[in-house]
Amino acid sequence: MTATPAAWQLAPGLQLHIRTWEGEHALYNNLTGDTHLLGAPAIHILDALRHNAASPAELQAQLAQALELDAAEPGLAEELDTLLASLHSLHLIEPA
């Protein structure tokens, strides 16, 4: 089992090139040349990491606030872990 990182950061050198229309978010990854369609939660996480690394607890609080959810909502931590793992597999974020 892989340990959860204490903090996450944007991949070094990643520039957030995001275009939004009709609720869809397209992000161009300048490091890999890939373009990804991402949901609002992923965009909020990337924006939160734009300037500073953050712990999963900090990201959970910021995501809950952005989406107007209760940070203690059941399942939110697990969904965040899944989202962080997905963003990591896309080479958008990495452990700090």
CATH architecture: Alpha-Beta Complex
The computed structural class is: alpha+beta
Average of pLDDT = 93
* Secondary-structure element order, N to C: EEEEHHHE
Helix content: 25-40%
DSSP strand content: 15-25%
Number of strands: 5
Number of helical elements: 3
User: How would you write the strand order of the largest sheet?
Assistant: 2-3-4
**CATH fold name:** Outer Surface Protein A, domain 3
Uncertain segments are none
Largest beta sheet, briefly?
3 strands, antiparallel
The CATH C-level class name: Alpha Beta
Calculate the terminal CA-CA distance, rounded to whole Å.
19 Å
The radius of gyration computed from the alpha-carbon positions, rounded to a whole number of angstroms, is 13 Å
Count of discrete structural domains:
1
Inertia-based shape: globular
Mind explaining what this structure looks like?
This protein has 96 residues and is α+β, with helices and mostly antiparallel strands. The protein has one domain (8-95): Outer Surface Protein A, domain 3 (Alpha-Beta Complex), CATH 3.90.930. Helix content is 35%, strand content 23%. The protein has three helices and five strands. It has helices spanning 40-48, 56-66, 76-89, and strands at residues 8-10, 16-21, 24-29, 35-38, 93-95. The strands form two sheets. A three-stranded antiparallel beta sheet has the order 2-3-4, covered by helices on one side. Strands 1-5 form a two-stranded antiparallel ribbon. A hairpin with a 5-residue loop joins strand 3 (24-29) and strand 4. Helix 1 crosses helix 2 and helix 2 packs across helix 3.
